[in-house]
Amino acid sequence: MKLQIDNNDGRGLVDYTSAIDAARAPQVVRKLNQPSQLKFSVVANVSDFVAPLAGARVILGKASGQNIFTGYLMQAPEFEYLGWGKTGPAYRYDLVGASDEALLDEKRLPDIAPFVDRSAGNALRQLTSDVASGIVDTSGVLDVDTIASYAGDPQKTWTQQAAEIALEARATYRTLNGMLTLAPVGAATHALNETDANFSPQGLTLQPASALINDVTVIGEAEPQAYVTDYFIGDGLTERFYLSHAPFTKTSKTIFDEEYTDATLDPTRWNVSDPSGAISVAQGKLQVAGGTGQDGQTVVSFVEQIELGGALVLQHGDVMFNAASSGVIGGLYAGAVSVAGCLAGFRVSPNGTQSNIQALINGAAMGPVVATIAGHHYVMATRLYSQEMFRMQQRFHSSLHPAGRAYGGAAVAADVQIVLEIQDIDPTNPASQVAPATVLYDGPISSAPGFCTYALIDAMNLECSIAFTEYIQAIDTEVRTALPGQSYVTLLVGNLSEGAQCTTTSSELEFFSAYVPATNQQIEVRYRGTGRAIARVTNPASVTAQTRGVDNGVHGAVRHVKLPPARTASDCENAALAILDDTINPAWKGQYDTWSDFLPAGATDIFPGDALAINVSSRSANFVAIVNEIEITCNDLAAEHSFYKIKFANDAARQLGFEFEAAKIALPFDATELTIAQVGSHYIADLTAAAVTQITSTTVNIDAGVTPPAGGGIEVRWSDEGWGAYNDRNLLGRFATQTFTLPRLAKVQDYFLQQYDASNPPKYSRYSAALHVDYPL
Q1: How far is CA 553 from CA 214, 382, 550, 558, 674, in A?
Q2: Which member of 237, 339, 399, 461 has the lowest number of beta carbons within 10 Å of its beta carbon?
């Protein structure tokens, strides 16, 4: 076995094997989804001995070329005085090396947008490239499984984030020989059988554990719950209106604000296809000069997909046209970038020496046309509103549902309200800077895709410059108003400095002074109520099997899931299924000590994340465990004999698809108890489109938005509780029609709706539709 060190002094790799302190054998420690570590000591054995330096490259390997460790010395050696030698004081140098990814941990992660709907491997490759391309080879990174969303954090190291990405896909990463790999946990399996001639019974320690759980309550994050619509009416004076619920909202933040200050487009933000050389950055602007004349060839697109959930604002920029142009600006595409495939965008077409700008919706130009004027600037923006905050369920894994077969991952259907607006700015007229924008389109797109490509530019022949581009995750509240006899328009909710007309807090809708609603101006506020995601799921078969005497067989536990994030109650249910897959089985953990010569059959080395198929019938042990840590002590360097301590556990003892934490909030654990067979089928669809259609002093007309199920109906209550066929304490009525009339008894009135089917007992919606009326009598 050979120890080689390159001190970056021009000598290349130098053999330090003879300098290894014989009293302290080198030791390699490998841990699951953590950097490996090499501990060793050397002493000066030649006159020109060079003490290893911080940053030196270290390789410990066999003569065959199989390396046990590759990495770097991340700190200077510790000196241990040994006495006085022939040439002066003698020292032992104690050194610690970290595996190849240690260099990545020294780099700062750039500010990048969250990875959306990417495979774990794709996300890890992108993360590695964004941190420092070329340090490690990523060709060994497999895709493994899809992650709904992962937000990088510059405050975390590369290894911390790589470990989180791997955990969400139930995968294992490692670096060796300058190569990064990512593979499903258990991709390599080693048989540990007591009938094997190399098996060492004295080296095997097994620890059965009492960890059985067949009734689990999973606590997740704050989630969007009731579908709330509040109805108010203006009086010309009132600026503030009280909301009926505390709104759920994701953190309002700017994903990016591109000012085009660099000489080229940032590759961590933009993908560029430019066969004709039409795209450049100059004078603080994105310059577009022509194109190929073909659709979908000259494209500048955002590197991440846009999730059409909650509220989003895309400011495509301050655009100045230099000549007649053809193309699409600020387009959203469910597939390839093309005019025909554009979900929403701004269509630019020639008009003499100038251009026309029109809304492009589902591939068709529609609505008002804005004709450009030479020297004017045009600020274009897209606003999107969806009542569904997350358009894909989270994925959860177990030993029975590994990568590629996870629970969850289903798409979440939703309609999306889209507003396209443009502001014409005349540099010679300061008033145009604050003039209202022209709305080119304000309407819903039914069954909108969950994720879209955002292409700032699709240039067939665009001649323009763009001063900025901004992507904002906005306040998740939709506010629409209508003057008497006019159609509803969607207002911008946010800060006054951003041009918003109103804002919302946890309890109020506040209009800014310039936008106070006029007398009889109708106001609709749509948002989701907030609550804690929680689910309780049981395994009845396990409960029955565990029933003994006075013990009813229930083995319950509460788990607060940190990773993968359980964002909704349905996520909590899927997480519970994954937990119960493993916790109803016996839990085993242990350690196997053996020499490298006697590793399980066919294994030349073993790594964390490998599976051990353990079959030791004399100890009633027949299970599959996952290696989580290995200590390799290189006792005999010359003969290449090393001693392995292999620590392992099955998923019942250590669940590799989760990170749990202690719950930090007191909760009423009143979640509906479901069996594993009921998950996914216990609830029917929510009434997401329920609306008030007319209000009088004594009645309210309601449209539930869907035809009630055959044999079922729409249940209406005064408060959001008591749902079911046998509780009438707050019941307002049950209706078999889509539209119906309800009594109005006060100025402020609340109505809560759920639909139910003909099952016995009936199945209900998971979340209520909450309609709040605050109108004068």
Answers
A1: 9, 56, 9, 17, 16
A2: 237
Q: Rounded distance, CA 99 to CA 67, Å?
A: 12
Residue 352 is which amino acid? G
Q: Taking phi first (over 0 means left), then psi (-120 to 50 degrees means alpha), and beta for anything else, what does residue 159 get? A: alpha
The pLDDT tens digits of the residues spanning 194-239 come to 999 999 999 999 999 878 999 999 999 999 999 999 999 999 999 9
3-class state of residue 593 by DSSP:
strand
Which residues, at least 6 apart from 62, have a Cβ–Cβ distance to it below 8 Å?
1, 2, 68, 640
Which of 120, 199, 201, 108 is CA-nearest to residue 156? 108
pLDDT of residue 252: 82
The string of pLDDT tens digits covering residues 166-194 is 999 999 999 999 999 999 999 999 999 99
Both tokens of residue 211? 């960890």
Element of type H or E holding 582? helix 569-583
Non-local CB neighbours of 236 within 8 Å, separated by 6+ positions: 516, 517, 518, 519
Closest CA to 256 of 340, 165, 317, 337: 317
Structure confidence at residue 80 (pLDDT): 85
Q: Say how far apart CA 634 and CA 641 lie, in whole Å.
A: 7
> Would you state the pLDDT for residue 16?
95
The Cα 497–Cα 695 span in angstroms is 35
Q: 244: closest CA among 512, 483, 530?
A: 530
How would residue 87 be classed by pLDDT, with cut points 50, 70 and 90?
A: low
Helices then strands, each counted (H, E), the chain: 5, 54
Q: Structure tokens of 129?
A: 């490239």
Fill in the DSSP letter of residue 108.
P
Name which of 174, 162, 163, 99 is nearest 125 in CA terms. 162
Residue 150, helix vs strand vs coil? strand
